[in-house]
Amino acid sequence: MPAKVERQQLLRQLLASHALHSQREVRDALADAGIDAHQATVSRDLDELGAVKVRGVNGSLVYRLGVEPGPSTARERLDDTLRRFVTAVASSGNLAVLRTPPACAHPVASVIDLAELTGVLATVSGDDTVLVVAEEGMSGAELAVSLARRAGIAPG
């Protein structure tokens, strides 16, 4: 059996990439990855990692890391986070560009990613800038207007 640190790292990855509804499903996913873990071990690992059950995209309860809330929770926090941290919004091509104070880009990108907004393909964050990539069929300008509205500012 891998060391606890390695097992928990794999568990973090599984929780981020799979909709695991029960400890049995967690055990099965670990087993598929070559790790045989007892139920007590899985329970302890989930507790130590701060995993909680949240509503998934389809409404069923799934395990997520406590610091990575599910989409519905992130959507509820999205507007507040954008209002607190976004100072300017611009666009170019299929990109919306959000400016933040230094060291604030990551929380903004994270909440956008977790909110799973329609029209958003991905985000890339630096220290004070977030690039939000629009999906095919949506322009960066349209996305910028939507995000600026949520942030309570005029797009630039």
Structural commentary:
This protein is α+β, with helices and mostly antiparallel strands and 156 residues long. It has 2 domains: 4-65, Arc Repressor Mutant, subunit A (Orthogonal Bundle), CATH 1.10.10.10; 71-151, Gyrase A, domain 2, CATH 3.30.1360.40. It is built from 6 helices and 6 strands. The chain has helices at residues 4-17, 23-32, 39-49, 71-85, 105-115, 140-151, and strands at 51-55, 61-65, 88-92, 95-99, 120-125, 129-134. A 4-stranded antiparallel β-sheet has the order 3-4-6-5, covered by helices on one side. The chain has a two-stranded antiparallel sheet with strand order 1-2. Helix 4 runs antiparallel to helix 5 (105-115). The protein starts with a helix and ends in a 5-residue tail after the last helix. The model has no long low-confidence stretch (mean pLDDT 87).
Strand content: 15-25%
CATH topology of the largest domain: Gyrase A, domain 2
How many strands appear in the DSSP assignment? 6
Q: H/E order of the elements?
A: HHHEEHEEHEEH
Q: Which sheet architecture does the biggest sheet show? A: 4 strands, antiparallel
Give the SSE map.
Elements: H1 4-17, H2 23-32, H3 39-49, E1 51-55, E2 61-65, H4 71-85, E3 88-92, E4 95-99, H5 105-115, E5 120-125, E6 129-134, H6 140-151
Antiparallel strand pairs: 1-2, 3-4, 4-6, 5-6
